[in-house]
Amino acid sequence: MKIPDYWQRESSDFRRFLAQPHRRRPDATTVANGGGRMLFLLVLALLVALFISIPVDLMLEHWAGIESKLDMSGLQLFLVAVVAAPILEELTFRAGLRSATYCLFVGPSVIALLLMAYTLAMVLAVLSGVIALIDLFYMKWAISKGKNGLRFTRGRTYLRRFPLVFWSYTAAFALMHVNNYSVAGLAGLLVVFAVSSQLMIGMAASYLRLRNGLISAVIFHGLFNFVWIALTLGLLTAFDVS
């Protein structure tokens, strides 16, 4: 199979997935096909970053005073972005995409913890625990009344609404990176447009997690951050920007 043909097929599959996200079982792909899919998404994410994210960021910096707080020259940032962040963020936002229990009851509290919003995390954990406990007793009562098909009905309902779960976690992942920017005044509300690159990463990593497994999503995330930092440092050096 020619590489352009393979990437065209991957492009079509990715577009169909985004139009209707689904939680089907991972593909039994070969290493070559899995690597090709990851390479396709990596190139796509870099193109989005180069031709959409950078121009948007420059406009926001000029018109709204929104600037990145990240020091691209720091070794600590490099290690965090390439090693720690991909593992931690993929475990938080993508690992539980196949689990309704995680997505509905556990994930929100974990995300709040990641943002160091400890009070919110505690409130969400308590609320989720209470709701889960009530639901457990309700399910036991329903089964005792002969409503044995309720669990399957609810499962099918969840699968139909999975696109909402997918986009909620993808948007949360992108919006978490708003903390990477310094904002001032009402114009700072436009900072949500500065995370277009992270939105693309979230979509691609979620797709990989559901098609190839969690490890592929972690590798993709780390590779993107590595290449992006390397390109940024290269550009800064080429134009002698300090």
Give a description of the structure:
This protein has 9 helices and 2 strands. It has helices at residues 3-19, 31-64, 75-93, 100-114, 118-144, 150-160, 162-176, 196-211, 214-238, and strands at residues 67-68, 181-182. Strands 1-2 form a two-stranded antiparallel ribbon. Helix 2 packs antiparallel against helix 8 (196-211) and helix 4 (100-114) packs antiparallel against helix 5. The longest helix has 34 residues, at 31-64. It is globular.
Give the topology.
Layout: H1 3-19, H2 31-64, E1 67-68, H3 75-93, H4 100-114, H5 118-144, H6 150-160, H7 162-176, E2 181-182, H8 196-211, H9 214-238
Antiparallel strand pairs: 1-2
User: Would you tell me the structural class of the helices and strands?
Assistant: mainly alpha
| Helix-strand sequence | HHEHHHHHEHH
Order of strands, main sheet, comes to 1-2
- Estimate the helix proportion, in percent: over 70%
Overall number of strands: 2
End-to-end separation in angstroms reads 46 Å
Percentage of β-strand residues? under 5%
Shape: globular
Query: What is the average of the pLDDT values?
Result: 88
Query: How many separate helices?
Result: 9
Q: Give the low-pLDDT segments.
A: none
A few lines on this structure:
This protein is mainly α and 242 residues long. The chain has helices at residues 3-19, 31-64, 75-93, 100-114, 118-144, 150-160, 162-176, 196-211, 214-238, and strands at residues 67-68, 181-182.
Keywords:
mainly alpha, 242 residues, 2 strands, globular, two-stranded antiparallel sheet, 2% strand
